[in-house]
Amino acid sequence: MDRIETADITPQFILNKVECGDNSQEHTVRDWLDSFGIPVVDQYYIRWQRIAMHASRVIKSVEDSWTTRGINMLLTLVFNVLYLGYDMKKEFEPQFTERAEELRGILSKIESGMGGAANAG
Question: What's the pTM value of the predicted model, to 2 decimals?
């Protein structure tokens, strides 16, 4: 299993009242996910959410002590690592796993004080 744990998480879905169309068709979340070949309990999705939640916690923990420039640099780093620079000719998931581990390491350093206010720009 990847270092980004996926155990003990079951996705829950929030359904909003449908206010468009004529209500002649009904589609479930399961139908929609199935149409894209995505399992309801998708381990990739769980790993993605875990790293996103970790990043969110770290950003929240430093927002009062870091400069605006430092926070913006951290936000840019998270965005670049998670969303940009993937090689479209290679399988996505191994690239994501590598990048998520890289980001987790950086976030852990920030949490442990190695990336504190003195390093925040």
Answer: 0.70
